[in-house]
Design a protein that fits this description.
single chain, disordered N terminus, five-stranded antiparallel sheet, about 450 residues, alpha+beta
Length: about 450
């Protein structure tokens, strides 16, 4: 009788120990929905941290939850069939967010809590992972100070064809009084290793902006892109526009400006006429846009023309006037074209070996600068004055001035210039002589048309 009681007591002890170990393993590996007694359910505005109540293995119909497999101690259940949209929607459910990113009352999370919560959340998604959150202090209203948390995550959702597509996204969570605001940005490719977030003020609104940086590596060149988010009406809003530049060598933000240095396309087909330049982006007219381009060096008359055209494309009329005047005043015998390639009659010609051709090229460039200057001056509402000290020698292309000068207005001048270019194709051919697709391509129509904005991400 004593032995039977001893065996029964031992069996009960072993059973209790096994249940305690198994329960701890389940709690570590299964992120369950809160039970009715869970305080998280009473405060739905809080982060849905892993519950302390006993988890259950099947979702309750009244509360949408993650689709999970049967839990086995020591394993991590994952969801494989998901999309980026369903991932975000599920996150909103877990955060108790309404469709418009508003949550019910609840205390704000402590700084750093977003990373831990997000780590537990993505554990249920196949091959998903998130980096440490960036903490961003912002001011809401006149005196309220709060913390925004931004994390970069890598997902492997299913694409339209059913195949997994690695994707990188940024998630931004901000407590607003007793609510939350959740925003997301999908990077153009799987680039979690190169994606970054920067915090700096671009709007001069008193709050910083968040810049999403991503780099796409091509066959020859890496192109870096920047997307901006600004705090507006209690949520982070994507600012229209994109700053993009190949081969970024440096990046800085000062005086509410994003300043990038680079721009070289590392491809033989792009040509040898490229230079590293400094591109300045600002938020203007509610969009992130290019506002200035500067080159450290302009070694030839053609590079001076490039500078003037780029400035004109940004609608900086007076600055463009000065740049075109510099082209016209450039000494004809100053340029050395060794190391540059020309395309002449479908043949590549090395610079420095055909002085007659190079002289004609310089005259063609000077003629275009003269025309653009006349067109700018034709609109008296834009720029005053002549801009040049004396009339330049257009050489072979002096006939252009003869048909443009009699024009009574800018429209007549454009029409006359286009007709002259059509009957003198050598002019346009020489303008397109610098070899490389990174150079602008001129046509009889474009030489007198509005200048298209510079494309630094060609």
């Amino acid at each position: 009788m004593f032995q039977l009681l001893y065996r029964t007591a031992a069996l009960l002890i072993l059973t209790l120990v096994w249940m305690m170990i198994g329960s701890d393993q389940i709690r570590e590996t299964f992120y369950a929905s809160p039970s009715p007694q869970d305080p998280i359910q009473k405060e739905p505005g809080t982060l849905g941290t892993p519950p302390t109540a006993t988890p259950f293995l099947s979702p309750r119909p009244s509360e949408p939850t993650l689709a999970v497999a049967a839990v086995v101690p020591g394993s991590t259940p994952t969801t494989k069939d998901y999309t980026v949209d369903s991932f975000i929607a599920d996150m909103r459910t877990r955060l108790r967010l309404a469709p418009h990113a508003a949550a019910a009352a609840g205390p704000a999370p402590a700084p750093g809590g977003w990373t831990a919560w997000l780590t537990a959340f993505v554990a249920h998604y196949d091959n998903a992972k998130c980096a440490e959150a960036t903490q961003i202090p912002i001011t809401i209203g006149e005196s309220t100070r709060t913390i925004t948390s931004a994390s970069i995550c890598r997902l492997v959702p299913k694409g339209e064809n059913g195949q997994p597509i690695p994707t990188s996204i940024a998630l931004i969570l901000t407590p607003v009084e007793a609510q939350y605001s959740l925003s997301s940005y999908v990077f153009p490719d799987d680039m979690m290793e190169t994606a970054k977030t920067h915090v700096a003020e671009l709007y001069k609104s008193g709050n910083p902006e968040i810049l999403m940086e991503s780099t796409i590596t091509g066959a020859h060149t890496s192109t870096t892109q920047y997307a901006a988010y600004t705090w507006l009406e209690d949520q982070w809003i994507r600012v229209p526009g994109l700053a993009s530049l190949p081969s970024v060598r440096s990046m800085r933000i000062e005086n509410a400006k994003l300043i990038l240095k680079g721009g070289i396309i590392s491809s033989a087909g792009a040509g040898t006429w490229q230079r590293e330049r400094t591109f300045t982006f600002q938020i203007r007219d509610s969009a992130l846009q290019l506002t200035d381009v500067q080159a450290d060096q302009s070694p030839t008359i053609y590079h001076l023309l490039q500078d003037a055209v780029d400035i004109e494309s940004l609608a900086n009329w007076q600055h463009a006037i000065d740049r075109y005047a510099r082209v016209l005043e450039h000494p004809a015998d100053k340029d050395d074209y060794q190391g540059y390639l020309f395309q002449n009659k479908q043949e590549l010609v090395e610079g420095g070996k055909d002085p007659v051709f190079e002289r004609r090229f310089q005259e063609a460039v000077r003629a275009l600068a003269w025309l653009r200057l006349q067109l700018l001056q034709g609109d008296t509402n834009r720029v005053p004055g002549n801009g040049i000290k004396q009339e330049p020698d257009l050489g072979e292309f002096a006939g252009l001035a003869e048909v443009v000068k009699p024009a009574k207005n800018g429209e007549e001048a454009r029409t006359a210039a286009v007709k002259w270019a059509q009957t003198n194709p050598a002019w346009v051919e020489l303008l397109n002589a610098p070899f490389g697709y990174a150079n602008r391509n001129w046509t009889p129509t474009s030489i007198a048309a509005a200048i298209a904005p510079v494309e630094p991400s060609y």
